Amino acid sequence: MYVVSAGPLDIGEPDKAFDAAHCDHGEVYELSSEGRIVVEQNVLAVRSQGRVAIFETGAPFRDTGSNPLHAGLVSAGFELDRIDAIIPTHAHLDHVGGIMAPAGHRNFRNAAIHLHASDVEFWLADERLGTRGEHSALVARRNLVPNLDRLEFHVDDQETFPNVTAMHTPGHTVGHTSFVIGSGNDFLFVVGDIVHHQCQLAHPRMKMLFDTDPDAGVETRVRMLEYLALRSMPAFFYHFPFPGLGYVERVGDGYRFSPLSDRKWG
Fold first, then answer.
1. CATH class of 2-259
2. Which stretches make up the Metallo-beta-lactamase domain (predicted)?
């Protein structure tokens, strides 16, 4: 397994992202960068049984000459045309936005795209147009519609790629899915957007305003953080500081992140 950065992502002002009703509003600002929250986009590349999958693709990248994800994958020894599967946790723009190039060709020509069927249906529906989620919906259309014949839908608690089991974790989106990678006693949990920022570990019941269902998002986040803490299972966080690998530990009514230092794991 190898982690590559797809670059930073500005998710905006703290009060536009988080409902601070469950914590000190000032604390959210302290944890942000210059009044705005800037997070990472960590992409996990996995080799399993002779096949290669990447988890997420990053937001649309317009500078075709210096795409950090492509450069990082190549530097790590992965050929873009030999990637077999793209496995986004959901269909938001910063997760599927790198499937297609600005010029209209596929960035990963031979990769199947694994998603939850309900997420594809939701983000491609006309009802998303004219709503707060319109931008994500348009990016989803641009990246998924040309690849409808390459979609593979995962099923909760079943293997979607060799040694990769899907775990439906709705709330952030209707089809948001996390993954357990590994076998035997050696596992890694792919968190996705259950958590965007470490302030959500200290205050797990703080709602994320980007969630399709913020109440369900809180319920899922609390349940999965407790799941990770009880099992001491290493986890991969898409939006945490690079490389986003570490453990979740319980502290009082909240949790904390204990990072692993290496970007290569397993």
1. alpha beta
2. 40-239
DSSP state of 130: T
Per-residue pLDDT of the chain (266 residues; tens, 9 = 90+): 899 999 999 988 887 888 865 555 556 656 555 678 889 999 999 999 999 999 999 999 876 567 999 999 999 999 999 999 999 999 999 999 999 998 899 999 999 999 999 999 999 999 999 998 899 999 999 999 999 999 999 999 999 999 999 999 999 999 999 999 997 778 999 999 999 998 899 889 989 999 999 999 999 999 999 999 999 999 999 999 999 999 999 999 999 999 986 544 55
Buried-state track 70-98, b at ≥16 Cβ within 10 A, e below 16: bebbeeeebebeebbbbbbbbbbbbbbbb
> Between 134-144 and 117-124, two packed helices, what is the crossing angle to 10 degrees?
110
Rounded CA-CA distance 85/17 in Å is: 31
Core vs surface per residue 163-198: b (16+ CB within 10 A) or e: bbbbbbbbbbbbbbbbbbbbeeeebbbbbbbbbbbb
List the chain domain ranges. 2-259
